[in-house]
Amino acid sequence: MNEKMKALRAAFPYTVPICAGFAFLGLAYGIYMHSKGFSFVYPMLMSMTIFAGSMEFVTVNLLTSVFAPFHALLLAVMVNARHLFYGISMLETYKGVGAKKFYLIFGMCDESFSINCTTQPPAGVDRGWFMFFVTLLNHIYWVVGSTLGGILGGLIPFNTAGIDFVMTALFVVIFLDQWFSQKNHIPAVLGIVVSVACLIGFGSDHFIVAAMAFILLLLTLFRKKIEPAEEGAAS
Amino acid sequence: MSMTVWQSVITIIMVVLGTMLTRFLPFLLFPANKPTPPYIQYLGKVLPFSVIGMLVIYCLKGVSLTSYAYGLPEALGILLTVLLHCWKRNMLLSVAGGTIFYMLLVQLVFV
């Protein structure tokens, strides 16, 4: 079996929960655009090029209001600012994977990032290709889901209320896996506590940028405490 | 639709640019062929753990603790996900179990 097939086979199981989540969220997004009077071409092309779920929902609002391109650019940077953190986390991991790196960075959505940053592929599987297929499969699920949603409109046969919880459950599971793999829990606890505090303090629309700023500040202030503990823990 | 096709195409391109800026900027600032500063390396090591915690909260940001359902379906769904995962450590089982349970709760119990 060649290197790529092996990596694809190793990557697929990790993407199954995301397939379920994206099939639903993508459908919901496509249906939403359909309800606003857009052809399925819009959700299809936007999912291919933007590939950032929450921002695509926001873009629908932008497209239905007055033309303000600079505002759109700024808003995209604000809504997606968390990707800056992903990039810093993946600087080392994405090194030495060749030309695939461009696509890995382009397709670094929440879900691809969370798998690629936490999963060691099985022995004998090339990590670069593994991460490539995780990203590609997720990208495909998202584009297919939103295109179908745009075509089918409102014809969904069963009650899907609550299926978006699949993303919450996925992140909870990844959080636990990280927890079990580490001795030093300060960064994980910090992420939860600071985010909750900012959510209460700043409200749901603005908390993420504040949470990122405070996480960065606290990780920097307590570096001397956190880093030695980090050295001892398996990574 | 209130925009012309070209206006909407430009808007989408701006959103793509903004999104890609956030994804590519760290890699442009700290290229692979130069050693990454130790402070950034440290952040790269500890940030993933904080960020996943932040993402969990990000998923729950729309939950209201003061109006009906009071976050109970989410709390119970997460509880079952955690229990399943501590028990079997099987990602698919934990995610599917927690999600189906949550769907039943919001469709049949907390309506």
Verbal overview:
- The complex is a heterodimer of chains A (235) and B (111).
- Chain A is mainly α.
- Chain A has twelve helices and no strands.
- Chain A has helices spanning 3-35, 41-49, 53-63, 69-79, 82-90, 100-106, 110-118, 127-152, 165-181, 186-202, 207-221, 223-232.
- The two termini of chain A are 30 Å apart.
- With 111 residues, chain B is mainly α.
- Helices cover 75% and strands 0% of the residues of chain B.
- Chain B has helices at 5-29, 38-59, 72-88, 91-109.
- Chain B is flat and about 50 Å long.
- The model of chain B has no long low-confidence stretch (mean pLDDT 91).
- The chains are: A mainly alpha (235), B mainly alpha (111).
- Chains A and B meet through helix 1, helix 2, helix 3, helix 4 and helix 5 of A and helix 1, helix 2, helix 3 and helix 4 of B.
The rough form of chain A would be described as globular
Radius of gyration of chain B, Cα only, in angstroms? 21 Å
Cα Rg of chain A: 19 Å
Unreliable segments of chain B (pLDDT under 50, ≥5 consecutive)?
none
Biggest interface between chains? A-B, 102 and 70 residues
- Poorly predicted regions of chain A are none
Count structural domains of chain A. 2
State the end-to-end distance of chain A.
Answer: 30 Å
Distance N to C terminus of chain B: 34 Å
Strand count of chain B: 0
What percent of the residues of chain A sit in helical stretches (DSSP H or I)? over 70%
The best one-word shape of chain B is: flat
Q: What is the tally of helical segments of chain A?
A: 12
The SSE order of chain A reads HHHHHHHHHHHH
* Average residue pLDDT of chain A: 88
Q: Secondary-structure element sequence of chain B?
A: HHHH
Task: Summarize the helices and strands and which ones pair or pack.
The complex is a heterodimer of chains A (235) and B (111).
Chain A: H1 3-35, H2 41-49, H3 53-63, H4 69-79, H5 82-90, H6 100-106, H7 110-118, H8 127-152, H9 165-181, H10 186-202, H11 207-221, H12 223-232
Chain B: H1 5-29, H2 38-59, H3 72-88, H4 91-109
